[in-house]
Amino acid sequence: MKKTIPPLYYSDYLKLDQILNSQHPKSLEYGGKLAHDEVLFIIVHQAYELWFKQILHELDSVIEIFEGDYVNEKDVGISVARLRRITEIQKLLVDQIGILETMTPLDFLEFRDYLIPASGFQSYQFRLIENKLGLDPDQRKLFEKGAYYSRLSPEHQKLIMSSERGPTLFKLVEIWLERTPFMDFKGFNFWKSYQSAVENALRKDKEIIENNPTLSDKVREQELSEFEKTEKSSTAIFDEKKHNDLVQKGFRRLSYLATQAALLINLYRDEPILHLPFSFLTTLIDIDELLTTWRYRHALMVQRMIGTKIGTGGSSGHQYLKATTESHKIFSDLTNISTFLIPRSQLPELPTELRKTLGFNYTKSKP
Ligand code: HEM
Asked: Measured between alpha carbons, how far is 12 from 128 in angstroms, rounded to an integer?
């Protein structure tokens, strides 16, 4: 039986009565006079929270896809599209700061004191985004020597602590990378071939310095010492124990196997089957970069608004926020894969059978 659907009214569908009646300036309530810019301040924050909700909606769906034991190509495509939607929203969030900056610091002072101790620091949706992406709790800057969620309501604390436990996108991506096929394919061992290509490239570089007749002994010595540093950083990747030590000390997060797979995807990204995984990894780097851009832009705005005063939430303000831009990154290990890339011309040749497997095999039949 067909369900009768009553005609829909725009305002009802969007619950505009609720949304448009949810701006209650404190300057009016406590000071008796509306601080004109407080309306902008409230609306900008509300718009952020709506977009945070959309980001969480996309993020949760990608996490769900990656939670399975197997992720098919189609779903990787869907995930890339949803993550790209997140990056477009993030660009808007960075731009939105400019709108708030049309409020001058003096205008902000008209209502700032009414806000204490509330702060964007208490945005539980922002914390959920950080945690679901996979920000390492041990990496977090301490806030007033306490946990970052200590200023939140018990209900929000519960949500945030549960999101810290996972599943996080970082962990799921790591597991997915560890499952990457083609690392060892019918006699072609990617890691061994890559290692010998790196060693060959380094040997050639060294020979060029040693045999360059235009260099004086002093310059040659300097260049060889620089070369040694490059050699050390390029070959560090081949030492699993060293890698695990770095993970232990918190300098790296991605497992050794997942790092190898990420490198394979980056090096052989021109092979058709690796296009999508490469786009996926690139989008994760974009999300991290845009989050850092937002943090930095927000920190600059805060300095402009309150100078070196402490924040309404009680932090050191600009100093605290600036510190988070460097330390609160999530996918740095994917960004740093560039350290280990070698030119396409020096890449080990793939065996024909493997190349065929990595390609799209459709061939147009002759008329
Ligand atoms: C006049 C505008 C703003 C000022 C002066 C300001 C100031 C601050 C300060 C000082 C902090 C550090 C915690 C504290 O001591 O309060 C903070 C944190 C934060 N603010 Fe803002 N903020 C402003 C606008 C916004 C907007 C529009 C958002 C959007 C949601 C936002 C989101 C956040 C978030 C998420 C944090 C936590 C950052 C972290 O811990 O990494 N802020 N803000």
From this structure: 29
Please tell me if the CB atom of residue 167 comes closer than 6 angstroms to any atom of ligand 1. Answer: no
Category of 29 on φ-ψ map: left (φ > 0), alpha (ψ -120 to 50) or beta: alpha
In this predicted model, what pLDDT tens digit does every residue of 25-83 receive, in sequence order?
999 999 999 999 999 999 999 999 999 999 999 999 999 999 988 999 899 999 999 99
- C-alpha to C-alpha distance for 80 and 92, rounded to whole angstroms: 19
Q: CB of 313 closer than 6 A to ligand 1?
A: yes
Which atom number of ligand 1 is nearest to the Cα of residue 306?
Answer: 5
Domains of the chain (ranges plus CATH)? 12-358 (1.20.58.480)
Helices and strands in the chain, H and E counts: 17, 2
Mean pLDDT of 81-109: 98
Radius of gyration of the chain (CA): 26
pTM, to two decimals: 0.93
* Cα 191 from Cα 243, distance rounded (Å): 15
Place of tokens 């300095």: 303
At a CB cut-off of 8 Å and minimum separation 6, what does 132 contact?
56, 59, 60, 63, 163, 168, 169
Residue whose pair of structure tokens reads 């993550």 in the numeric block: 83
Q: Which atom of ligand 1 is nearest to the CA of 123?
A: 35
> Is 321 near ligand 1, meaning CB less than 6 Å away?
yes
57 alpha carbon – ligand 1 mean position (Å): 23
Only one residue has tokens 């300036």, namely 25
State whether the Cα torsion 37-38-42-43 is positive or negative. negative
Distance CA 212, CA 206 (A): 10
Phi, psi of 87 (to 5 degrees): -65, -35
Question: CA-CA distance, 67 to 72, in Å (whole number)?
Answer: 12
- State if residue 119 touches ligand 1 by the CB under 6 angstroms criterion: yes
pLDDT of residue 15: 98
Report the alpha-carbon distance of residue 231 to residue 212 in Å, rounded: 19
For residue 151 the two structure tokens come to 């200023």
In angstroms, what is the span from residue 160 Cα to ligand 1's centroid?
Answer: 18
Q: Whose CA is nearest to atom 5 of ligand 1?
A: 302
